[in-house]
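HUMAN: Mind making up another protein with tokenized structure?

ASSISTANT:
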Amino acid sequence: MPKKIVAFGEVMMRLQVQGYELLTQANKLQYSFSGTGVNVASAMTKLGHDGYLVTKIPDNPLGDAAISFLQRLGIVRHFIARGGKYIGMYFLENGFGQRASRVTYTNRLESSFNTACISDYDYDLIAENADIVHFCGITLAMTEQVRASMKTLAKKVKEKGGLVCFDCNYRPSLWDGGYAKAKSHYEDMLALADIVMMNEKDAMYILGMETKKASKLEQLKDLIPKVAEKFAIQTVAGTHRQVNSDNTHSLQGYMYKDGAFIFSENISFSVYDRIGAGDAYTSGILHGELAGFSSEKTVRFATAAGMLACTIVGDTPMSTETEILSAMIGKTEDIKR
């Protein structure tokens, strides 16, 4: 049976330069709408579930365009509030080789979502309709009102028996005060979470945990069990990504559950659009957990979902379960007929 996945987050306008140009070179921009909540809700819809978005969008033509975009993705709009004047925007420059992709935000703190009040959302109604609620660290970085809404909704969902998923997704440019400001808010969300997306860097830098291990893998194996035990988290998952000299990327997923680590193969692939791959991985983990996959199948499924997201233009994952399962076994075709 399909489950109800509720994602809490901002809808943003994505303004992308063509190809691999810089903003200083470009004179054309293509717009679409995205956001971590949009990506997760849409991806779960593609995987056969009911995806809901909790957000606030301006009541003007920009907001109308955003609603139309969300409807095309199959996202249920029951919990979308309307009001305010602004929508957050970001400009995307695609990376190439050793030059990273670059995102520049504008008008974000004045957006309808980030100026919304707790009273804009019916938390009891949302919680009654949520098998899983998803939150992101990017959203946590916004305003005190937004943080209060996140924590209120997470508590309500847990009271109703739903699961809370939290993706750490720390963005240094968004936190005025850095790790010291972020730590207590992350600890609050981790204490409420059942499924967490993070890696060893989050444990070290956000939570201030120490390890004497040297490599990323050793640090991961040392710190993640401690995080899971401290905050009573049932599942922790994440990825390690590397950009190769030939402009391909390598990706390995992991999941820690029931006291054991499970790793995917380290897969390499060409990248068409990097943004949104982490949300695809998260959605793969959630789907595997809901579908009753084994831990091994779940982490392989999520890694394949993250890879496929890099082959599709735009932030939003668009792959079905069948397509992801085919990618898991390396089944590729020149043309599907």
The chain has eleven helices and 14 strands. The radius of gyration is 19 Å.
